[in-house]
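Q: what does this look like with sodium ion bound?
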Amino acid sequence: MQDTLMQQGIDLMIYGMGTVLVFLTLLVIATLIMSRFVMRFFPDPVVAEPSRPAIQTGRTAEVDPAVRSAIEKAIALHRARR
Amino acid sequence: MQDTLMQQGIDLMIYGMGTVLVFLTLLVIATLIMSRFVMRFFPDPVVAEPSRPAIQTGRTAEVDPAVRSAIEKAIALHRARR
Amino acid sequence: MQDTLMQQGIDLMIYGMGTVLVFLTLLVIATLIMSRFVMRFFPDPVVAEPSRPAIQTGRTAEVDPAVRSAIEKAIALHRARR
Amino acid sequence: MQNFLRLWHDSGIYHLDLGQGVMLLVGLLLLFLAIRKGFEPLLLVPIGFGAILANIPGAGLSLSAVENAIASGYPDVLAQIAQVLGASADAGMQALNDAYKHAPAAVQADAYRLATDLGYANGMLYSFYTVAIGSGVAPLVIFMGVGAMTDFGPLLANPKTLFLGAAAQFGIFATVLGAVGLSVTGVIDFSIQDAAAIGIIGGADGPTAIYVASILAPELLGAIAVAAYSYMALVPLIQPPIMRALTNDDERKIRMEQMRVVSKREKIVFPLILLILVALILPSAAPLLGMFCFGNLMRECGVVERLSDTSQNALINITTIFLGLSVGSKLAADKFLDPKTLGILALGIIAFGIGTAMGVLTAKFMNLFCKHKINPLIGSAGVSAVPMAARVSNKVGLEANPQNYLLMHAMGPNVAGVIGSAVAAGVMISIVSSL
Amino acid sequence: MQNFLRLWHDSGIYHLDLGQGVMLLVGLLLLFLAIRKGFEPLLLVPIGFGAILANIPGAGLSLSAVENAIASGYPDVLAQIAQVLGASADAGMQALNDAYKHAPAAVQADAYRLATDLGYANGMLYSFYTVAIGSGVAPLVIFMGVGAMTDFGPLLANPKTLFLGAAAQFGIFATVLGAVGLSVTGVIDFSIQDAAAIGIIGGADGPTAIYVASILAPELLGAIAVAAYSYMALVPLIQPPIMRALTNDDERKIRMEQMRVVSKREKIVFPLILLILVALILPSAAPLLGMFCFGNLMRECGVVERLSDTSQNALINITTIFLGLSVGSKLAADKFLDPKTLGILALGIIAFGIGTAMGVLTAKFMNLFCKHKINPLIGSAGVSAVPMAARVSNKVGLEANPQNYLLMHAMGPNVAGVIGSAVAAGVMISIVSSL
Amino acid sequence: MQNFLRLWHDSGIYHLDLGQGVMLLVGLLLLFLAIRKGFEPLLLVPIGFGAILANIPGAGLSLSAVENAIASGYPDVLAQIAQVLGASADAGMQALNDAYKHAPAAVQADAYRLATDLGYANGMLYSFYTVAIGSGVAPLVIFMGVGAMTDFGPLLANPKTLFLGAAAQFGIFATVLGAVGLSVTGVIDFSIQDAAAIGIIGGADGPTAIYVASILAPELLGAIAVAAYSYMALVPLIQPPIMRALTNDDERKIRMEQMRVVSKREKIVFPLILLILVALILPSAAPLLGMFCFGNLMRECGVVERLSDTSQNALINITTIFLGLSVGSKLAADKFLDPKTLGILALGIIAFGIGTAMGVLTAKFMNLFCKHKINPLIGSAGVSAVPMAARVSNKVGLEANPQNYLLMHAMGPNVAGVIGSAVAAGVMISIVSSL
Ligand code: NA
Ligand code: NA
Ligand code: NA
């Protein structure tokens, strides 16, 4: 029984770690092919933004368009009033 | 049985379309009466805004009051500092 | 049975109101001790804000940091452009 | 032609009875009060709308699948339901509904399965009620949001105002006695559970009232919630005469000293102190006060602003919508158009009055002992009804002395009243549910 | 080695059959249409993704616990399930699935408990479907949000445009007849429930279609929802040829007079008028139109902006995510890769076409009597497909006369079409569910 | 007097036992770590608070209705429960609880109905746990939100960093072996399910750990979640010594070349590629990675910003609140104050250490073959703990060379680690649940 448990643990390790490696290797290959394919046949019409920091833990940093336009209007108004 | 299905379909059409027409006709009548009644006895204290585009699919376009006041404050401050 | 109901009501009143008084008295005592303890041994590094209105029924009044920074940037930009 | 008859039989007018007609008007009245008169609109708009939906004749939106099956009135359906419930097949619909309500849970489950097999489903509002109130979760989530909106600063600056929040809860228990009295004298038949649930109206706190009523007297929930929110909206009319009658002009002019600044850390520790006290002394108040303290800790701790924001906005709003509709679903004609409702409305306003009076009198009593005098007008804020009652204290104070701003001082007893009524709720549930 | 075999047996490729492969491509196609072509992306992105998840071989995400137990294929599991279902132990998996589907609710509950005892669980998408659509709540909540986004101003300024919204629903019932015809002639076998659910595609309103299909023909829900949303996205291609064919240049140039200003109070009262009419005449439309009116009342009453905001944003967005994934879960290969789907797609586009034509023709018919002429191009907006169809009216109008802005005028029939199809949904549920 | 005794018997102090007292302190400690020390406060504030609520003596907030009935201790209640469970009437409360836990689902349902008939209800936290974690939905929704917050740009610019994310998962499996070893040597008795659930702490990813533990070892969920989040917060202390020990100064100074710009379309296609690979190879990882990819697709596709926003804000916040409280409800004294918890805490930190080391060593190993050298410090970010581990890589890199900004480069392995541990979770669930 205890031998079996040990055996189960070793099996889990071998097949588990193996699957992780195989899966991520396939993902590397698929990603490389995809990137090449997309860059060659479907390039973005305009150049995309440089890669941003990966995970934003807070709220999205971008300002709401409505807010931005309000600011721009406010400043335009302010400038016009002078 | 198949005759029955056809009959059911025709029934559904007649009574269904009939109900839609009757219901919306009643709604037209009720709305006209209501509008006349409200406009006559309970007119808005001030004139309401002209009817806006019917369905906004995005977020509400208005700027948050807090944001607007922040902008106004920022501009006032900016003006004061000059 | 009806006597019992009356009795139950009176019991509920005595033990209920008693518990409320005892509980809140203990809370007053615990709060006073806590406040003294915190003020003595763990004073805030800087003085805290004065107590705000107790319950805000609307949205939080503070402006989002992203919005504030956007405003500041907008004004800086505006100033720089002049 | 058969279809036309069916449509006619399915139509609302065919099924409309007087009670439902009256309740449709009650729903419209609640909407009028909420929209035109500003009576606690966040709750009374959904409640009023829910009341209309619940009383649409023939729609059965507030009925369970079994009740909908019974309401269909088909003899073979009734016979099958009766068999499952162990009732006589020709007992009549009312008897079957009663049998269903009092059946053991296992039989109810069987009846439900039979009803779904026969093609009946729970009404929309019934589903909302089950999820939002039957489970108890909606009032608790709203209490969490209220906690996240509450600033205990004024209370911490002057903790003895907690006594005012305690005293004002006397309205709750006096009303319990009143309800029991009505029952004993044979005027209206209230059980002790009913009496306790009615009393909590005096707590002047909506979610607490709904929570207690959903546990002790779900039948009366609709009337109790309507009374609680209506009277909270009427606080500016109910309280001032009582406040003026119990104070003289000198007392109303008392100026209270400037509050001390309360530190961030005190505010962080306070909800934990309250929670630990609840844990040690009154576990039956733990759901309500636990969620309240959790909301307040999220607000004050400063490291989970995301969560605090959400619990004050999206989460409390979503919950309010479904809570309101669910409460409205309990405004069915046969429950609401009952002498009990009149009794509840009468007792509720008495509860508010007694609570207000006890708050004011206790403030005067405390002034006999305390060095720093309390303006007795802030005592009335102890009933809760946040923040309306505190504004009323401020307004009456300004009438006596235009320089006398009591709002901040009144917030102390005001939030103390929330704690007080949650404690009262806990002790009532604890005592009553074991009687 | 045994584990390696297990991993292989658990892998998707091992289980992949042709149908699932095709459905994975269908899911990707839906995503392509949504992302690249802008086909109603808010719904079709979740639906397409859900379709892919539902067809992951061996994952069983869209299966119930019992179906997952049956799909495991272990003989002892099958034997136990068969015993509970009262089926033969060697009936085969398909027969067991059928037996489960048609078993009484009590037997289903027993089978579910057995499956959980055996370690099987409901798939993720199955759970989403049960909560979001099975309960009926998600389409209703979305309808509430749509109500909160809808401005009835243009409709109130010109109530006779309601007739256009009524006429365009003829597409619904013509399609019902078409589906019945296909069945009678033996082309495709549709029941009357199927026919009614397919017809509602012609309502050009997503939540209504999903709500009706979930009640009358859950098996066809996936195809119906995909057809409804796809054709709504294709409205700018489908409608203009029909509109041009049925009008001459003079008609298209008709300029409509400036709309009157609609008062705030009219807007507040209108949803209540609509609600009361529903209550009195068509209770079976009460869930859909009730929630719609509730959302609109929250929008217009002006005292519950918090709730209105939340129902237009957080709540509708959350619901849309789970509704979309749930609809996608119904795009299983054995249901979708069926001649019925082709029939649904063909009937759906006919429904849109007939609805468009009837709207335009009715506008021309009304011009025979009315003093203030209606531009018949706004008739096509009566199908709903808000706000796309109104924009199409405007665009075709501008082609005929660059000064002729029809958008506001077309919003009247556009929102009338939403009411019209909800009424049609109610009457169909009422008639069909009792046949 | 009887009521006073009842109140006393209902009070917390009367019921308080040592274990609960200790757990109240553990809850306060977690709150202290979260608020004062900044340990993953978004999760540890709700978890700590939930732990306090769960251990309020006599409140039974984390117990099911049946457990609450048993805990009441009334002999007649126990006798009825025992009869339903087929146990001896005088078996004692612990035996009845065990009998309930291991009873078939049908018997549990009967016992639940009996308990509700007797007036007992599920505790608040028990309900939260059932809905949020028991159903599996909360970790999945959070994973969707995390997907919507994740930018795969750095990973796509340099896909071979995926290997680092794979290598660091060795910590998971080494820990499984460690747990098995403890069990075999008789130190602590862990089953293979327990071992797998403990191992996943090494994945350094909260929702993944909670998801796996809720499936494989719900009893250990509380300790596992606390360990996972605590060690994620401690990454800045755990990782640097290991990173410094395994690298020399020259390696730490390696400057990596500027990343290429990644196009929008690559970012849209990547989650679909990942999803299809999961579908074909490892369906058991489909729920976790499916929701992750769905969130990411919503983020990148650019046409459903509403949904992406909501899943990053309102939805993930609401889910986090209830997930945290639910996890806290598993911190009951009898489960947490157990040698197993010490074992879990010890194994967890070993898992983090081994994962870190394997990440660094694999980076050095890859440098033997690759033209573009990798700074081995970014290998440690492969454990996940997003974005803390990437920041640690950056900080240690800056110590060696103040111009060497590694943050962007470390984000590649960092998000690869999320994928890696979700794959590991899938394969463990697949293998273990069939052993
Ligand atoms: Na109160
Ligand atoms: Na329509
Ligand atoms: Na990881």
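Chain B has two helices and no strands. Residues 1-44 of chain B form one domain.
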